[in-house]
Design goal:
Blueprint: H1 3-22, H2 25-80, H3 84-161, H4 163-227, H5 234-242, H6 245-260
Length: about 260
């Protein structure tokens, strides 16, 4: 393979790549419709020109055929008048016009075939243009949707791998940690409150026990006074109380304990 062929292939490959990248489906579709419209105009002009030429050929054929018929009648008239030379000249003119009419008839048949073909092509082209317009709108909509989807996927891809998405995830984790700390603080506060109430409740039990003990002691002292003889003097009762040092010691201990509480 020669160097020129290799360079030519590289150049053509690069040009094709540039053209492919530069092709915008929406713009290409619009330009294609414009080109087809121009082809349609040219096709209509060609059909109109062919029809006009067909009509001219038809007129020329009719005229030549009419002239041939006229010279035929003149030849008959000359024979009737006995002028054979004039009749011969008329027949020569008649032959010339007949040949012209025959040639025009052949040409007219060819033109009729060509006009019919052009008309069919024109109808087919109009149908293709109409179909292309319908497909163009659909393809443009699909192209727009594809572009939008591609842009969305690119944005999603950048969000998944970029620093912005990483920062967002870090902030989300930080918020979760803050919520966990707040919940833990609330639980600790609730536990401290429970302990305070428990202390108050336990203090109430001690107070109740102390009150009961005081009532018991006071009730016992009143009972001892009631058991003394009615005739015994107060100093005798006092003497009996002071005469029991163990009871006195226990009573003093209880009083001291009560005062300390």
């Amino acid at each position: 393979m020669g160097l020129f062929d290799r360079v030519s292939r590289v150049v053509r490959a690069n040009l094709n790549d540039v053209v492919s990248k530069a092709e915008d489906p929406e713009k290409i579709l619009e330009q294609t419709i414009i080109d087809m419209q121009e082809d349609l105009v040219q096709m209509r002009q060609a059909v109109a020109s062919a029809i006009a030429s067909q009509k001219r050929s038809q007129q020329q054929h009719n005229q030549a055929q009419t002239e041939a018929n006229n010279w035929q009648q003149r030849a008959q008239l000359a024979i009737q008048k006995g002028d054979e030379g004039l009749a011969r000249e008329a027949l020569v003119r008649k032959k010339t016009n007949s040949e012209t009419a025959a040639s025009l008839k052949t040409q007219l048949d060819q033109q009729s075939t060509m006009v019919d073909t052009l008309k069919r092509n024109l109808i087919a082209l109009e149908g293709k243009i109409s179909e292309a317009k319908t497909k163009k709108d659909m393809l443009k909509a699909r192209a727009s949707a594809a572009k939008a989807n591609e842009q969305l996927q690119n944005v999603v891809g950048r969000m998944g791998t970029g620093s912005a998405m990483g920062a967002f995830e870090r902030m989300e984790e930080k918020v979760l940690q803050m919520e966990a700390k707040s919940q833990a603080a609330a639980e600790l506060a609730g536990a401290d409150l429970e302990s305070q109430f428990a202390l108050l409740e336990s203090g109430g039990d001690v107070d109740d026990e102390l009150a009961a003990m005081k009532a018991q002691l006071l009730g016992g002292a009143a009972q001892d006074k009631a058991q003394l003889p009615s005739g015994a003097p107060a100093d005798q009762a006092t003497a009996q109380q002071t005469s029991n040092p163990e009871v006195d010691a226990e009573l003093e201990a209880l009083k001291t304990k009560l005062d300390q509480l």
